[in-house]
Amino acid sequence: MSFSFALLVIVTVASAFVVVSTRNIVHAALALGFCFFGVAGFYLLLDAPFIAAAQVLIYVGSITVLILFAIMLTAQTTGPREAGGREPRGSAQWKLLSGAVVLALFAAVLLPTLRVASWPLSAEPVRDALTYLTRGLLQTYLYPFEVASVLLLAALVGAIVLAKEERSE
Amino acid sequence: MSDLQSYLLLSAGLFSLGVYGVMTRRNAVAILMGIELMLNAANINLVAFSRFVDPVRLEGHSFAIFVITVAAAEAAVGLAIVICIYRNARNINVDDINLLKW
């Protein structure tokens, strides 16, 4: 296992842990940005430079900023009141339940899969990743590509309509 | 342990952290962050499989691009809904938003 992989695992998993565990939601959003950066590093290690760039542009650049804006616009849960505040209701049961779900996932799916399954691994190096990506997007998956553009337009209009302040006449 | 298996374990860990975040956080924005973590874990899986199983045609890259697209749309609409709820209820704690519950 390479050194860069281990370093990225530490950065990504540690910041993801901060995202789900810290009580201050602004810290969680900033840690989420670091986590997205780590995932972009994994894409670089996997010979997917275009997806790494898209990850940095879309996730680090816009989704993190969008989340920070939403936090600022709904500001009542940030700051020391939340940081030192009460534990939310039913927290212990939820932690137990999510732990049980995750353990069941690991035990029932992942471990037997890793032990038994063998994929037809190929040792070919990746050549010309971008050529094949564009071929996939504009030939094989042309209709899903167009549908995705309509989806983005619908999401754009829907987000504006939902978040627009209604002024009374 | 092969390279592919270490990537699978990593994405399973990220996904588990996302599930934990969604189930334990009460703030709607924090729940959206957990969902983003899970989507990223799925994306790592897609790209890792296309790197190690199908390195010539790389079909998984197209899927990863579609997942990123849908995740961006989901984040925009989800955060708009959160802002809308905050404007009406002055609160985004999902335990307190029970208008449709009976």
Could you walk me through the main structural features you see in this protein, from its secondary elements to its overall organization?
The complex is a heterodimer of chains A (169) and B (102). With 169 residues, chain A is mainly α. Chain A is built from seven helices and no strands. In chain A, helix 2 (25-45) packs antiparallel against helix 3 (49-73) and helix 6 (129-140) packs across helix 7 (142-163). Mean pLDDT of chain A is 84; it is low at 78-87. Chain B has one domain (3-89): Helix Hairpins (Orthogonal Bundle). Chain B has helices at 3-24, 28-52, 59-89. Chain B starts with a helix and ends in a 13-residue tail after the last helix. At the A-B interface, helix 1, helix 2, helix 3, helix 5 and helix 6 of A face helix 1, helix 2 and helix 3 of B.
Short note summarizing the structure:
The complex is a heterodimer of chains A (169) and B (102). With 169 residues, chain A is mainly α.
For CATH, the homologous superfamily of the largest domain in chain A is named as NADH-ubiquinone/plastoquinone oxidoreductase chain 6, subunit NuoJ
Radius of gyration of chain B: 17 Å
- Percentage of residues in DSSP E strands of chain A: under 5%
Question: If classified by CATH, what would the architecture of chain B be?
Answer: Orthogonal Bundle
Structural class of chain B comes to: mainly alpha
- Main sheet summary of chain A: none
CATH architecture of the largest domain in chain A: Up-down Bundle
Gap between N and C termini of chain B: 51 Å
Question: Helix/strand-derived class of chain A?
Answer: mainly alpha
Strand content of chain B: under 5%
- CATH topology of the largest domain in chain A, by name, is Four Helix Bundle (Hemerythrin (Met), subunit A)
Number of helices of chain A: 7
Portion in helices of chain A: over 70%
CATH class of chain B: Mainly Alpha
